[in-house]
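Quick review question:
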């Protein structure tokens, strides 16, 4: 009996010493912040549960809010040196945050395979690069496209748009649809901002703003004039809604879009918007075509891939490697992406894209297929709009567009006025 007790005591002493030598695995806490809808919150929380199951030593503390409050909260946290470890970021702000030293370059973790980008194309990575370094990993990819109704095209006997079609082709097709079916060939393409004009310029080899953001990015005002002559022609033929109709409709919901009600056969939309539009159209099959190219020889593509959001690791994180592991999980975990289901846009991993296809509805599959097509026919994403761009759109672009389309000013005179006013705004920002 004595020998048995002594043996137990020796064993307990050995275990004590052993446990001192080999302590329990450290428990790590990470804070992760994002903005979005309740649906995004719910999906992200479920994906976090999967991450914690895979890495039981890492506890995630979520911090999510609406877009309007998100950046105010983050800036307050940055000033107090209390930023979360991982933050959802936006293309418009990523450069500023990198310049301020608030987010870390992720190249070290990419090169070591902590963040695996082996199945990710370069043009999916480049939107997160600042000064040649990666500061954000794209969470989902969108591209602007021409959504069209195959049923109406077949009814009119018109072939579907093909890769490389031009704005002259668009003009012809929209006019034929109007004449054959008595509907608009396309939704209005003049609303809200200069986005479509930007891709018109892109296909010509230019952008709206110069690289340094101090001036307009194109030298020849003929590009401006030709664009608005195209719109005036389409408007006069009834191939697109008139400016009066466009303004009168205001900000109607998606269910009131002409392409939903089959009062038009085409409409310009971002790729992730097809799900909502298809739902409003009672799941009527809709398809995406690439943006029309400039009607010139050797025109450049008029598409680029846009990151819906990024995940970045903040410079205030005490566990940057584990934060990078979290980003990798969102990028490469099939189980996580089955839960997320492209809510932030098409996943950047080609392997994940392919693996998700059986789980997608028809409109989601069309989104995936279109982004894949755009990836093969796109230019690098332009730099973010410079300071003053909002002023340009609201106080210069929108009023001038209305004046042109109402016939109160010619495109030639408007081009000069536009250049003068925009230049003044941009130079005031410096």
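Suggested answer, residue by residue:
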């Amino acid at each position: 009996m004595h020998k048995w007790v002594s043996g137990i005591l020796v064993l307990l002493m050995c275990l004590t010493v052993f446990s001192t030598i080999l302590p329990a695995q450290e428990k790590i806490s990470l804070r992760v912040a994002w903005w979005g809808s309740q649906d995004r919150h719910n999906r992200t929380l479920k994906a976090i549960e999967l991450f914690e199951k895979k890495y039981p030593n890492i506890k995630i503390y979520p911090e999510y809010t609406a877009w309007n409050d998100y950046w105010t909260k983050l800036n307050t946290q940055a000033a107090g040196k209390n930023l979360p470890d991982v933050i959802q970021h936006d293309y418009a702000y990523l450069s500023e945050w990198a310049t301020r030293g608030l987010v870390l370059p992720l190249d070290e973790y990419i090169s070591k395979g902590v963040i695996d980008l082996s199945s990710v194309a370069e043009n999916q990575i480049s939107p997160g690069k600042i000064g040649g370094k990666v500061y954000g990993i794209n969470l989902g990819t969108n591209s602007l496209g021409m959504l069209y109704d195959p049923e109406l095209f077949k009814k009119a006997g018109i072939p579907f748009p093909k890769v490389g079609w031009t704005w002259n082709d668009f003009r012809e097709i929209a006019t034929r649809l109007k004449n054959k079916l008595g509907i608009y060939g396309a939704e209005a393409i003049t609303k809200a901002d200069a986005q479509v004009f930007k891709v018109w310029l892109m296909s010509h080899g230019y952008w709206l703003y110069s690289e340094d953001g101090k001036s307009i990015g194109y030298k020849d005002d003929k590009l401006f004039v030709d664009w608005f002559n195209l719109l005036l022609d389409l408007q006069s033929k009834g191939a697109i809604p008139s400016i009066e109709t466009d303004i009168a409709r205001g900000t109607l919901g998606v269910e009131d879009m002409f392409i939903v009600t089959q009062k038009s056969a085409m409409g310009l939309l971002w790729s992730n918007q097809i799900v909502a539009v298809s739902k409003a159209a009672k799941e009527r099959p809709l398809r995406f075509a690439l943006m029309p190219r400039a009607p010139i020889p050797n025109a450049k593509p008029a598409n680029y891939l846009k990151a819906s959001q990024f995940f970045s690791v903040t410079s205030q994180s005490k566990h940057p490697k584990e934060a990078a592991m979290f980003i990798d999980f969102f990028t490469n975990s099939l189980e996580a992406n089955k839960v997320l289901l492209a809510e932030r846009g098409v996943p950047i991993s080609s392997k994940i894209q392919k693996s998700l296809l059986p789980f997608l509805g028809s409109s989601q599959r069309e989104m995936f297929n279109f982004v894949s097509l755009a990836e093969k026919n796109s230019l690098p994403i332009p730099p973010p709009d410079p300071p003053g761009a909002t002023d340009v759109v609201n106080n210069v672009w929108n009023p001038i567009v209305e004046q042109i389309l109402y016939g109160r000013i010619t495109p030639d005179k408007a081009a000069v006025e536009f250049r003068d006013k925009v230049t003044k705004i941009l130079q005031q920002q410096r």
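Why it works: The longest helix spans residues 2-21. The longest strand covers residues 28-35.
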